[in-house]
Amino acid sequence: MKIFSAAQIREADQYTIQHEPISSADLMERAAGKCAEWIEDHFSPTQPVYIFCGKGNNGGDGLVISRLLQEHGYTVHTCIIQHSPNASADHTLKLQQLREAFPANITEIGDLSDFPGLPDNAIIVDALFGTGMSRPVEGWLAGVIHRINDLRSQHTVIAIDLPSGMIADTSSNHFAVVKAHYTLSFEFYKLAFLLPENAALSGEVHILPIGLSPDYILHTPTRYHLTDRQIIRTIYKPRDPFSHKGTYGHALLIAGSYGKMGAAVLSARACIRAGVGLLSCHLPKCGYEIMQISEPCAMCIPDKDTYFNTHFHTGLADARYKVIGIGPGIDTQPETARSFEQLLHSWQQPMVIDADALNLLAKNPKLLQLVPKNSILTPHPKEFERLFGPAPNDVERLALLSKEAVSRHLYILLKGRYTAMACPDGSIYFNPTGNPGMATGGSGDVLTGILTGLLAQGYTSKEALILGVWLHGYAGDIAAAEHSQEAMTAGDIITGLGQAFKEGI
């Protein structure tokens, strides 16, 4: 699914109006009708509804919602915020239609003293400002937003399009923004919905289809995408009936140290479950028996060191490996760092770099220059900050993420609720699968194994990244459904991979 900017969404509206064709007022009727249907599906007519409308088209949506809900037996109080002497043409038309149909219970609010008292268990619909907002809300209008937020604990707040005060394409940090329980938006996710800083403001986001032009959507480029099954199905490669284990590659996984062999075992199991043909694991001597017993499908290469991986750069001359995954549990010993540097000097193919290998890069920034092009880096936010520095907000962090991916020709993901995946071509993909139960030790090791296994099978770095993160999250959702978010473990994610391949693609 493409993620369009606020300007592109306005263009999509206009393109639809011109080419469907449909009037702007009727398109507003269609969008507001979807919102009214959603409210009717989720809330009883016994609950009073208070709709706060601005003077633009977002307020026009609110006016239509008011009329439609009243036609279906809801008690609706429509509050028009007089923040401007002018109103949009469609707002003016919809206000006239509302007054003709239901003239009672329309209130004009000129300042905070006009704000109505609400009965218990009311529904507040925020239709103040929509995607067109490009600056912070200030003055008494910010007071209206704060008043709505003060009422949030006693009432349900539903934002139309996006919470008022939130900017669709840039950070809204420290702005006055409505804190919605639900946001009803149209056709596309907005970038703002995918940023961690807005999670407490957007609430539960529902994207409602309103029939915007498929032609515009298809032919309009954007750098932002939300991964969906359509994208995943274009990536996934079914197996050839005449294939053999050599077809699906030989991966080398460098993982584990004394006390951290669980990370190596989880990563190896995930790599195998992801479909790799052959897997060799370079391990410290203390992990040899552990891996042989825990995962007999993996071959083991014991390091010269008993407790740490310190000589994994040797033995690569025969080039039998298609990909190397490195990092889970390897620790950051000086000898490990030296071997890592030598590996980077000798290995030219894409790698998957995670966990302690990322920490080694952060401690030795010069090593970043040696990372092979098209490698995949998998930092969580703190690891990202150690590697590339801090950012003042989520939007600038995304910009930094993309800048590093493009300038270094790497694929860099930033883990989170909607894991962001930056590509060297400047595109960024957000992944919707997964849940908070995956915030558990070993989950990242599992992802490293999946990505390594997919790269070994011949997927490009971009394909492996998008598909692997999707499968990882989908398997996590399966694990949460089976065990609960609280009780699931990283091993449960691996167990869910088979079902994720069958159901998630």
Automatic annotation (TrEMBL):
Bifunctional enzyme that catalyzes the epimerization of the S- and R-forms of NAD(P)HX and the dehydration of the S-form of NAD(P)HX at the expense of ADP, which is converted to AMP. This allows the repair of both epimers of NAD(P)HX, a damaged form of NAD(P)H that is a result of enzymatic or heat-dependent hydration. AMP binds at K415, G416, R417, Y418, T419, G444. It holds the Pfam family Carb_kinase. InterPro entries: Carbohydrate_kinase_pred_CS, CARKD, Nnr, Ribokinase-like, YjeF_N_dom, YjeF_N_dom_sf. Its cofactor is K(+); Mg(2+). (6S)-NADPHX binds at residues 57-61, 130-136, 161, 263, 329, 380, 445. Homotetramer. It catalyses: (6R)-NADPHX = (6S)-NADPHX; (6S)-NADHX + ADP = AMP + phosphate + NADH + H(+); (6R)-NADHX = (6S)-NADHX; (6S)-NADPHX + ADP = AMP + phosphate + NADPH + H(+). HAMAP family: NADHX_dehydratase, NADHX_epimerase. Its EC number is 4.2.1.136, 5.1.99.6. Residues 228-504 form the YjeF C-terminal domain. GO terms for molecular function: ADP-dependent NAD(P)H-hydrate dehydratase activity; ATP binding; metal ion binding; NAD(P)HX epimerase activity. Residues 9-218 form the YjeF N-terminal domain. Binds 1 potassium ion per subunit. It comes from Chitinophaga terrae (ex Kim and Jung 2007). Keywords: ATP-binding, Isomerase, Lyase, Metal-binding, Multifunctional enzyme, NAD, NADP, Nucleotide-binding, Potassium. K(+) binds at N58, D126, S164. This is Bifunctional NAD(P)H-hydrate repair enzyme. Belongs to the NnrE/AIBP family. In the N-terminal section; belongs to the NnrE/AIBP family. GO terms for biological process: metabolite repair; nicotinamide nucleotide metabolic process. The keyword Ubl conjugation does not apply. Gene3D superfamilies: 3.40.1190.20, YjeF N-terminal domain. The keyword Metal-binding applies.
